[in-house]
Amino acid sequence: xxxxxTTEASGMIMNKTAEEAGALAKAVxxxxxxxxxxxxxxxxxxxxxxKQALFDVSIDIPARQVMAFIGPSGCGKSxxxxxxxxxxxxxxxxxxxxxxxxxxxxxxxxxxDPVLLRARVGMVFQKPNPFPKSIYDNIAYxxxxxxxxxxxxxxxxxxxxxxxxxxxxxxxxxxxxxxxTGLSGGQQQRLCIARAIAVNPDIILMDEPCSALDPIATxxxxxxxxxxxxxxxxxxxxxxxxxxxxxSQKAAFFHLGNLIEVDETDKMFTNxxxxxxxxxxxxxxx
Amino acid sequence: MxxxxxxxxxxxxxxxxxxxxxxxxxxxxxLRAYGVAAILFALAMLxxxxxxxxxxxxxxxxxxxxxLEVEVPEGAVxxxxxxxxxxxxxxxxxxxxxxxxxxxxxxxxxxxxLFSNGGQYALRDKVVADTSLxxxxxxxxxxxxxxxxxxxxxxxGRDLPSDQRRVSxxxxxxxxxxxxxxxxxxxxxxxxxxxxxxRFPELAGLWGALVGSFYALLICFLVSFPVxxxxxxxxxxxxxxxxxxxxxEVNINNLAAVPSIVFGLLGLAVFLNFFGMPRSAPIVGGLVxxxxxxxxxxxxxxxxxxxxxPSIREAAIGVGASRMQTVGHHVLPLAMPGILTGTIIGLxxxxxxxxxxxxxxxxxxxxxxxxxxxxxSTALPTQIYIWADSPERGFTSRTSAAIIVxxxxxxxxxxxxxxxxxxxxxxxx
Lengths: 286, 429
Ligand SMILES: Nc1ncnc2c1ncn2[C@@H]1O[C@H](COP(=O)(O)OP(=O)(O)OP(=O)(O)O)[C@@H](O)[C@H]1O
Ligand SMILES: [Mg+2]
What we know:
The structure holds two protein chains of two kinds.
Chain A (H helix, E strand, L loop, with lengths): L5 H5 L5 H16 L5 E12 L2 E12 L3 E5 L6 H8 L9 E9 L2 E2 L7 H7 E4 L10 H11 L7 H13 L3 H4 L12 H14 L4 E5 L7 H14 L4 E5 L3 H7 L2 E6 L2 E7 H6 L4 H7 L5
Chain B lengths: L2 H9 L7 H39 L7 E7 L15 H12 L6 H8 L6 H11 L7 E7 L2 H7 L16 H12 L3 E2 L5 H4 L12 H32 L4 H14 L3 H15 L7 H26 L2 H9 L4 H30 L2 H5 L20 H9 L4 H32 L5
Antiparallel strand pairs in B: 1-2, 1-3
Helix pairs in contact in B: 2-17, 3-5, 9-12, 9-14, 9-16, 10-12, 11-12, 12-14, 13-14, 14-17, 16-17
């Protein structure tokens, strides 16, 4: 692993548990071969101004699986997720230390253009946020700005395929010209997933994608996530243990800005190795 | 400790109000009454103001015209140069034919005072437009002079003793003869809109001022709209938040509060004295006004940009739009109604602004509408200022009429702004 900032990072407040957890994560991922590592984060620290929100997080995220981030509110799940597509760049006083490699390339390298990165790493937000434009334009916007397809049949095809993959095509195919904001909450969220898919990413980040949805819409989105896993690497933040158990193969537990534990979801929920994970999962704090 | 309260609840049912609650409600009612009284007072003042202006302006709605039969003799006008004819003389002769008994020079002068000085130009324009009229006898309609107009509208009382009014008994007699002969009419006063300024109230109109104001607002819009949006977008979307940008922000807000006459002085010093731009020209007026409109537009644009929810920006950035694309494709279009509303309100303010235009000389007396934005001209508010300063009776009503025209434009612009705000109001879902 190339380390751009590790010397600086290690100069910071060392956190033993995080170190151990990182080592553990690495051990697990190498043991379970079969899924190569897609995202490799090493000693990632994030600061909002003077306040440190993440402490030396190291984690390997395997390709074509669903990784769930769990942990109590404010523990830095969203912060870490937003590091993966450099969404934190848009926050003025936010600085990131450490390295995150996607397919072996450090995304914080100055020669990486965040615009290209975000085309490869799609993001779905907590609250569905379709553009106040037509359903068609919502999907077509990404491919258009990236020059993937010009308007016309090529674009129509992308729109149809993306909507189909997001399991929304049948519901909206007759009203593609109507505003995306007119859909129901669950449909809007699937529209946002389709929008992310349309630019043909490798990785999809989801920050509590179901927290604004009712159980039926949630079930649909979960089903969709399960299908998407065949093609995409998915990282999902969730507050619902059940959801994590249902959709993810691996889970990572964050606590107070530290990564405590990374493991197979089944194992973490039945036999966590850290007491804090145990306490959180059984609802003793959070 | 709590025994008084316990006693209180013991004596009264819980729903019975005590004195304190009654006092609170009374205070509520009083406050509401003050509010209503204040609004009624404001409305009454407004209605008095508008009512006074309307009443004063009423006489200016029509213009008293006279129709004379004129004969243009062959020799009086050269058909190859019809502009050079002595039209005043032709008119004088036709007046003399109507009143053959008037022959002393003093009486003749008084008689001519009834007719507008603009008659000769009306006749000239008619002949220039159609030279075949030379050598023929035809009717020409042109304004009565100010005193004739006032006489017709009853502003000058006939019952006053003759030494207290501006028209002599003879003039009243001649005027009555004209009425008897059906030569007097009072059509709608289109000249008020379509004439340029004049020394004579019956000929003075707002066209020059309207064109001047139009040019000035055009310049103001062309300068302040793009610059204002660019500044606001930069400050809101791109600038780092630090002491320096804070300072800029505070200063923009201060700029909006600077008295307009200061901008006038600035314009005088910079545009006229330093850059040597033409005095009294709408281009300078527009530039000065744009200095004042700029803060308004910047503040409105920033507010409109702030109102666009961050989730839209995140969505765009999340699919890989650059910051410029995010702003250009999503944020700015969504903010546009708010920006346009602010712009229209800023332009409406600029339209009514007087002091800076006085300083750069847009209160000059100019009898032709400007051909371009570089020619001297007046603007609506400065025209009102000039007319309000003129002693002739006819200008009193015309001043009020001009105020109504100005108010009309302002009301229209604000109505458009309100309509746009309502029309494009977005529900963010
Ligand atoms: N823009 C910001 N500026 C300053 N501090 C921030 C900012 N965003 C997050 N933080 C802080 O960073 C820490 C981690 O926040 P983060 O949003 O990552 O938590 P989270 O685990 O996603 O919580 P939740 O489950 O409630 O979404 C919190 O203490 C939070 O206050
Ligand atoms: Mg979060």
